[in-house]
Amino acid sequence: MSNTKHIHKGLLERFLDLLLIALIIFMTLKGGTSGACAACKYQRRRCAADCPLAPYFPAEQPKLFQNVHRLFGVRSIVKILEKLDETQKPEAMKSIIFQSYVRDRSPVYGCLGVTQQLQYMIWLAEEELKAVNSQLQLYRSQPQNGQNQNQNHNSHNQMIHELGGDNKQQEDVTSQQLDLGMGLNVHNNQSNVVTPFFSPLLPVSETQQPQMSYTYSCSEVNNNGYSPPAYNTDSGKEILTNNNNVWGGQNRFLYNDNNGGGFSNQNQSCHEMKSNNGVMAIQSQLVNLQMASNHQQGEEEEDAHEYDEIHQFLEIIDDRQSFADSKEAYASSSGGSLKEQIDEIGENELRSAATCFSLTSVN
Amino acid sequence: IPKRETKKIKHFQEVIKWGTFSLSMYICGIYKKKMSNYTNSPCAACKFLRRKCTSDCVFAPYFPPEEPTKFANVHRIFGASNVSKILQEVAPHQREDAVNSLAYEAEARLTDPVYGCVGAISVLQRQVLRLQRELEETNADLMRYASCLGSETTSAYGGRRG
């Protein structure tokens, strides 16, 4: 009898222990602030079961919500989400989170800086493509006069990366030693000079005023590019993550490239505006320089585990604040050093962009 | 002159002195107010928020009254308090750029509530990748042509020597 009593007591104790453990687990999972999303944690309130922000701001990544809160504010986000369908909400939140992150990285220029950087890279690539195509045309048109061409090549007519709209005539690209990624010609045959949107030879202080008109009018240009079909979610484009975690895995922004016409207009319009802007180009060049030299920064390591893919993409967009410090130093630099810097940019830019870019997936 | 009248005269003179002094101060105040920029018309932000635009208004230099939609968009998306916080965190010579970039982002978000300005970034990025691919292919073609010509030259030269 005493044995059975002893056994029952032991079982009872074990049962109580298990119950206690289960209760503790339940409390930690469901109850208190440890189960709250990052948004509710930040606001120090109870996270309801139907919290609209909980799916997008996990508790392990408080920085995400901090960035969003600093830029948009909770009320704005909730307002934006209320107007959207259920299917559109995740995509909208991802774009908001990305925008906030970019703003955190670059408090002055934000996504506009990224856009301009990309436009610069497109211009660079187009110019290089034109040059290479012209060289290729030369080869194709004269296949039999190979010896004559070699003699011309030996004269090494180096392609000059012309920036700032010097009105030089287009030079024949006859150099055999065409360095990939270097050497661009600005075609100045027309009266309307298609100059880049920067003018690094201008002093920085003189270009403050035009820059304002450029940056704000760019929004009007983008309106042309914001044609509804390209941004219709039914068209099959996706902003996706391979993992459930928004930023932990491969975060890609995909778009159907069915708006090429709209954006060619955008590029043309931006080309027209390019002569007005001086500072942006200087900044973008410096950004590339700093990117080439400073790949790893200590402050990025803190967020590395949170912004894995974004970090790769945004290495291209260096800290603009560091540019402000180096502005004066740059303004006093000579033209010769500028050319060397530009050559270095041309050499590294496309390659590094190809490796660093990770927003879209290449199908 | 009796003493009472001298007292009255003195009192009257003092009143006139103080009167002219206060009047001159008042006129100076009006003149100063007229010279300041903010009594003519408040900035777009203060107009929108229906408040008095003081001389130290944070928004006034960047939101002129001629562009009311600029502030309206920014306020609708980001909120005035967030914008003022951002402006205060940024150096004074960069505030104009910051405001313009915020205006651009706000307009983009209003145009496309789902993707905002990130849509443009994505499209541009695809364009960059496409151009880079095209450039690689073209360069490969060029290298092929160059190497062919090079081999022709060496063979011709070798033949000539031989």
Describe the 3D structure.
The complex is a heterodimer of chains A (363) and B (162). With 363 residues, chain A is an all-alpha fold. Helices cover 58% and strands 2% of the residues of chain A. Chain A has 15 helices and two strands. Chain A has a two-stranded antiparallel sheet. Chain A is elongated and about 110 Å long. Mean pLDDT of chain A is 59; it is low at 151-309, 316-342 and 359-363. Chain B has 162 residues and is mostly helical. Chain B has helices at residues 3-35, 44-49, 68-77, 80-89, 95-111, 117-161. In chain B, helix 4 runs antiparallel to helix 5. Chain B is elongated and about 135 Å long. The model of chain B has no long low-confidence stretch (mean pLDDT 87). The chains are: A mainly alpha (363), B mainly alpha (162). Chains A and B meet through helix 4, helix 5, helix 6, helix 7 and helix 8 of A and helix 3, helix 4, helix 5 and helix 6 of B.
Give short descriptive properties of this protein.
heterodimer; A: 363 residues; mainly alpha; two-stranded antiparallel ribbon; 15 helices; 2 strands; disordered C terminus; B: 162 residues; 6 helices; 0% strand
Uncertain spans of chain B, ≥5 residues at pLDDT below 50? none
Mean pLDDT across all amino acids of chain A? 59
| Shape, per Cα inertia axes of chain A | elongated
The H-and-E topology of chain B, N to C, reads as HHHHHH
Mean pLDDT of chain B, nearest integer? Answer: 87
Of all protein chain pairs, which has the greatest interface, and how many residues does each chain bring to it? Answer: A-B, 75 and 61 residues
Radius of gyration of chain A: 28 Å
Radius of gyration of chain B: 36 Å
Number of helices of chain B: 6
Label the structural class of chain B.
Answer: mainly alpha
Beta-strand residue percentage of chain B: under 5%
Largest sheet of chain A: 2 strands, antiparallel
